[in-house]
Amino acid sequence: MYQELRVFSGNAHPQLAQAICDYLEMPLGRCEVFQFSNENIFVRFCENIRARDVFLVQPIVSPVNDRLMELFIMIDAAKRASAGRITAVVPYYAYGRSDKKDQPRVPISARLVANFIETAGADRLITVDLHAGQIQGFFNIPVDELTALYILSRYFKEKRIPDLTVVATDVGDAKRARNVADRLNAPLAIVEKRRISNEQRTEAVDIIGEVGGMNALIVDDEVDTGSTLVATVDMLRQHGAAEVYACCTHPVLSGPAVQRIEEAPIRELVVTDTIPLAVEKRLPKITVLSLAPLLGEAIGRIHTGHSVGELFQ
User: 100, 193, 281, 285: which one is catalytic?
Assistant: First the structure.
């Protein structure tokens, strides 16, 4: 067992870190994380963390590479301050879509980030809904991958939407959508899509399953530019779907995403707070659910040596 539990935050999402500490009924740890005028990042823990069980909350969000460097330097600073154990809490793991060599002469960036986190000195990682499950295998330290699917499923179960069909945005996401469909006792449909080069554009080709006259719930791990989501919505409406809802864990919402979502015939998009959502992105049709209780419970269980897996049984 390690000594006292301490939770600290970088600049990526201090609101989430504070909410986690509120759930744990403890203060957020004091530390300084800032850039000098030459863009070099400086970190200093403002309290004793020797032999403490330290958790560093830092989703890898925009500006992605700054937040990554903050994380690495925070881990290094904690290690040099003789922390007992260092757990990187990374609710959103950027570079997750670069998880394999699917073209000649390209990197596997998700593996490279894993190497950096380990080399910096992290003893453990907590994350949420990785883009690809095999990313866990890129680490040689314990990885606790939590999932928001139960929270998202419960939200829609309480809405009691009639004639609901759960829709996967592609074959690769079918398992994720199937888990939601099972919890909602709803049928599953799968969109067949084609990605157009590296330009972050997708084209929906067909739908496997019946959606005519049904209310549809699109399930995805993240919404980035919104192209996949909008293409799926258009395909569903072409096939006679009635109301279209959507949910995802990570609301990246980069580039034209907000405008696309605002203009698309989506009744409601439900997301979580793994990524901070700026005020200008909080459309009336976007609902944000907090994962602070889930992350807080996982942190508490890890600190006390209890099972994290029991959270999902």
Answer: 193
Residue among 42, 43, 58 at smallest CA distance from 7? 58
Nearest to 225 by CA among 261, 196, 195: 261
Map residue 50 onto helix, strand or coil: strand
CA–CA dist 129, 124 (Å, integer):
16
Task: Evaluate whether 138 touches 122 at the Cβ level (below 8 Å).
Answer: no
Residue 192 has what pLDDT?
Answer: 83
pLDDT of 93 > 60? The answer is: yes
CATH number, position 166: 3.40.50.2020
- Tokens of residue 58, six digits: 């830092």
- The predicted model scores a pTM of 0.94
Distance from CA of residue 181 to its chain's centroid?
Answer: 20
- Chain length of the chain: 313
How close are the terminal C-alpha atoms of the chain, in Å? 25
What is the C-alpha to C-alpha distance for residues 278 and 177, in angstroms, rounded to an integer?
27
pLDDT in tens, 111-139: 999 999 999 999 999 999 999 989 999 99
For residues 136 and 175, state if they share a domain: no
Number of domains forming the structure of the chain: 2
For the record, the structure tokens of 239 come out as 């096939």
**For residue 307, what are its two tokens?**
């099972």
Read off the amino acid at residue 17: A
Domain co-membership, 261 together with 307: no
Q: Is 193 a catalytic residue?
A: yes
Two tokens at 78?
A: 């904690």
For residue 173, give the DSSP letter: G
